[in-house]
Structure formats: structure tokens, C-alpha cells
Amino acid sequence: MARTGMRRVGVALGAVAVLATLGVPGSAVAGQDDGHAGVQAALVSYRAHAGPGAAVHAGDASRSWDLHVGPKVVNTNQIIGPNDAFRIASQTKTFTAAVVVQLVDEGKVALDAPIERYLPGVVAGNGYDGNRITVRQLLQQTSGINGDSGNARAKPDGTYDLRELVRAGLAGNPPKTEPAWNYSNINYYIAGLLIEQVTGMPARDAITARIVRPLGLNQTSLPAPGDKSLPGAYVHGYRGGTAGPVFLWLDTTFGDWGTGPAEPTRWSTAGGMISTLSDLAVFDQGLADGKVVSAAGLAEMRKTVATDWPGSEHYGLGLWGHDLSCGGRAWGLLGDLTTGYSSATMATDDGRHAAIVTNTAVLNNDTPTRLDVLDAALCDKE
Length: 382
Known about the structure:
globular; three-stranded antiparallel β-sheet; Beta-lactamase; 17 strands; eight-stranded antiparallel β-sheet
């Protein structure tokens, strides 16, 4: 969900195809906040290979501000606002990791204990041994677990069980022969099972009780099985590309034949959550401020290993560490979903925060990247 590839256009059964001119309505171009010209320029450049719309919510300990370009619904003047809901994809992993670290704080889980201790027989077969994979390695993506759960069988009602996602993922993908950092959603499906085993409640309820409600994240949720809806004034998701002088945008907010339905249990504790730019900024800042896990727990989350992803070379427990151009490091995560969203949120220890979303999956490495835009926002002096 945070890996990059090429964008493509397809004919979507059940999706809404919209022809939109290369230009966007004037009222959907200017920033909402005065100033921040450098950030606005970076956002406009980013939207040129993203789109149809993009927005940033950023600020410091004393205030927040918002910028946007392009529409949240094509051929309208509707902008992406800080309180508009969207599917946050792999940003879900930070919530999941934080709950596990809370359980570590409470003495109910040990980071360096084998997952077999808590989920006997779950991580087994096809070369896997739960006695040789620790909780830390799962959260840090260094378990050697490989691939995804594309062959998972849905239940008769179309929803997915976490155990089935884990079973299918492990059975279909043998482990890496030399375990190192390797991004796989399966690690976080297993983490979801761990939460359920230790807390005795569904992972979505644990995340709600332990993080969403205490932080007052009223626009954030891991939806119930079968709930494919988006609340309130949501951001529409699109897939698209150029077709002569226009873009062809396919409205895939709720899925299409190429991506499948927007069933939240298919992504679950690895990528199934819904939130907003403002809520995500509150969460990441709350994590940095010690409102979610203990100081010792946060230090564990920030123990990183190297990755090969430019701009996100440091990966901890459900957190990227991004080295800022103005000095220091920001912490957060990225998220991509093929039903039409790319997003990222970062926060620093001195109260700076920035969140970005665009309403298509930006599966390429064109610059500026979303991290370039966030870097500009976090380093902004206006």
C-alpha cells in the first residue's frame, strides 16, 4: 500500500467515467491560507502528476493552516478540506503498531518475544516458524514475511477474516531467504490478530477504545465488516490518465472490477482505516507528544532500520523517519490505495505537523513527491 509503480487507465464496470479538462475551476486553485507560497508551488507541481485534486493541512503548536489545488469531485468547485474523509491505507499501520506498543507498556506483550507465544500455530508452514519471528520484527517489517494476501477467500457475505488473510498470505508467499526490511501487509494482519488475542476484542474496537476516542478523533474509524461507506463530505477517489487534451477520470471511490470492492476487512489492520487530514495530524502529533504510548514505547517505535525508499530511509515500528531539509527528523507514514488515494502525515517533536492527500493513487516516482511537499510545509517559515 505504500509501494510505487505505474499509473494506468482501465474501463471500469460500475465506476463512473468522467472527462475533465486539463484546467481546474479557478476557485479550486488558490490556497485557502494567505502566504506559504513555497508550499503552494510544491503542491501545484505535485498535483500535476497526481490529481485531480490535492490538499495540505499543516502548522505548528500554535496554529494550523490549509492549502489546496484542484477539486475533490471532478468538474466541480468543491475543494479537499481538512475535515473531508478518505481511506488512509497504510497510515493504518501506525495506529495498529501504537496499540501493540500500548500492550507492551502494560506488560502484556514483549517486543522481542516470538509471535508463537501469543498466536500458537498461526505463523507456520511454507517455511515460516513463529518461534523465529518476534513481535518487533513484524512491526518493523523485518520478519522475512513476503508478499500479500491476494488469494484470500472472502466469506459468503464478501468480508474477510484476519486469520484467512494471514493464512493465504503465508501459504502463497514463501519467506525471504535472507530476512531484512521487506514491506508486507501480512505483518500487520498478524499484528491485528495479536491485538485481538491479547485484548479479547476485535482490533477495530481496540483501536477505537485506545486511540480514537481518547484523542477525540471523531472522523476516524476502522469500519465494521461490510461497511463500504465514507462519512460526511468525503473525498472522491479516482483512477485516470491523459487522453489527448483531457484527463479521463474513473470514479473508483467504492471500487471497480480492477480493484475490487472497497471492503475494509480486505485491508483491515494493515490499511482499512478512514480519517481526515486534520485527525491524522492530531494523531501523529499526539504520538510525538507522548499522548498515545509511553516515552519508552515511543523510543522503541523510533528504533529504525534502513530501507531503499528515497525520503523514507528510516523505518521503525509503523513509522517512517524523514530527514527534513531544514534539519531534524519528522515521523509518520504514507498510504496508497488503488481505489483512489495517496496520502502521508508527518509530525515533529516541537509541534510541527503536515498531512497531504490527493484523490488518485500516485503510483510513480515523479518529483516533487508527497514527501517533498510535506518537507516544504514542515520547514515553512511564513
